[in-house]
Design a protein that fits this description.
The protein is mostly helical and about 230 residues long. The chain is about 80% helix and about 0% strand. The chain is rod-shaped, with a radius of gyration of 29 Å.
Length: about 230
Amino acid sequence: MFWRATPIVQAVMLLLLAASFWSWTIILSKALALGRLTRQTRAFEANFWSGQSLDELFDRVGARPRTPIERVFVAGMREWRRSFLPNGSILAGTQARLDRAMAVAIAREGERVQSRLAFLATVGAVSPFVGLFATVWGIKHSFESIAIAQNTNLAVVAPGIAEALLATALGLLAAIPATVGYNRLGAMAEGVSASLENFADEFSTLLAREIDRSQTPMAQPAAMGMH
């Protein structure tokens, strides 16, 4: 059916097959990556709440943070360390700067997590219409065959109808997995982003507590020890 189709329909079929292949590549790779990120996020949170010193944790992961949650943590800790004056007091507005630093890190990581999902949304939305275009073209080819042969025999119209139906099937073959994958992966990506936001809120609360302690009368300079 492919070789008997018109060049226009053949081009559309190849385009839909390529879109389907690339969609499956994205779906599989993103599913594995997001599953790994979820596990890494839980493992880091377990280390974070294990009671070890935040300074020790930062010294271990700060030079080369590998996961989104580590990069959010490092962004907050770097801003925290920059907020101390030589006499050990904390600069005014530290809490706001910490929140902004982690918010920027979360936004950056969210863009990375959501990367390539827009392609799935595009394929899911456009592929049926691309297939419909090829379907209309194939039916047009069938009517042209009827006009040329001046015969409505099924053998005359069958090739055009067959290529039209094949184009429709390929459009759905590309669109359905892309739509399902986009919805599922989008939910997983939102879960990762929500975990980052929750972690940033909890981390910000810890830092705010340290700031309040440093500002109480007779308090020692704030230090990030056990928590």
